[in-house]
Amino acid sequence: MSTPGVDGLGEVVRVLRQWQYDGAPMQLHPGDLGWHWRFGAETTARAVRTWSRDGTILALGLLDGPGLVRLAISPGAGHDEELARQMVADVTQPERGVLPQGAVCVEARCDGVFRELLLANGWDLDEPWTPLRRDLAKPVEDCGVPIKAIGPEQAHVRVGVQRAAFDRSTFTDERWHAMATGSPYAEARCLVAYDDHGVAVAGATVWSAGPGRPGLLEPMGVHREHRGHGYGTAITVAAAAALRDMGSSSAIVCTESSNAGAVATYRSAGFQQLSDVRDLRRRSG
C-alpha cells in the first residue's frame, strides 16, 4: 500500500478510468476523485491509497471523511486472496494509516474475497444504497428547461445552487476553482437549470471516464425554495444528455435507499433502478 504524491494523481485517475465499464459494480469513479479535488490537489493526494504488485495498481481507496474509505478493485482482482488479506490488514489496523480506531465504514461494492474476509471478521452490513443507470445509446430527450454549462466566470452560480440544495454544504467559489484545476475536470461539466424568470433552481456536475465508458452524476441538487416543480428530473435529464455528448456509454448515480425522493427523481429521468448495495461497518474496535 502507498500514498501517491500530487504528481502521482494523474496515474491514479488514468487507472481508475480504465476500470469503468458497463455492468461493473458501482465502485469508486474518477468523478469521485474529481469532486474531492475541491479541497485541493495536496489534500486529495493525501486521501488516496493504492495497492500495487510489481508496479501495477490492483486497488484504490479514497479516504472520504475521517471514518470512511471508498474502494475500487481492478477487474479480475476481486478473488486475489493475497491482495484481499493485505487490504483487510491495512483497513483494520489504525497504525497502517487508513482508518482510525472505533466505528468506521468501508465502501467496497465489488463481491469477492475482501468483503468475505471483513464479514468473517465481525464487520456488519451497513445501510443500503441504490445504484441507478441510464443507457446512453439513444439520444436523450430535451429536459424542458433552460440549462447552462458553467465556466469560471459563473462559478458563483453553481456554488450558490449547491449551498441552497444541501444544508451542510461547504462548497465555495474557491473550492469550485480548485476542483476545476484537477485532471478529472478536463472531462466534466457543471450544469445549472433556470426557471422562466432566469433564476438558478438546480445544479449538477457530470464526470466522464472517457468515450465508451460510464459517466457519473455527482452531485445533483435542487434549490430548497424551488422544489416540487420537476427541476430535479430536468437537471438529471440534462446531465445524461451532457454525458452522452462527451461520449459516455451510460450515466450512473448512487443514492441512499432511504432517500425515496431522490430515487424517484432519477427514475423519472429515465434511470433504471438496480439492486441495492451495502457498505461494511465496524461498530467498534
Automatic annotation (TrEMBL):
Signal peptide: none
Entry-linked PROSITE patterns: GNAT (PS51186)
Short name of one Pfam family: Acetyltransf_1
SUPFAM superfamilies hit by this protein: Acyl-CoA N-acyltransferases (Nat)
CDD domains: NAT_SF
Annotated InterPro entries: Acyl_CoA_acyltransferase, GNAT_dom
Domain N-acetyltransferase: 145-285
Official protein name in the record: N-acetyltransferase domain-containing protein
Organism for this UniProt entry: Micromonospora qiuiae
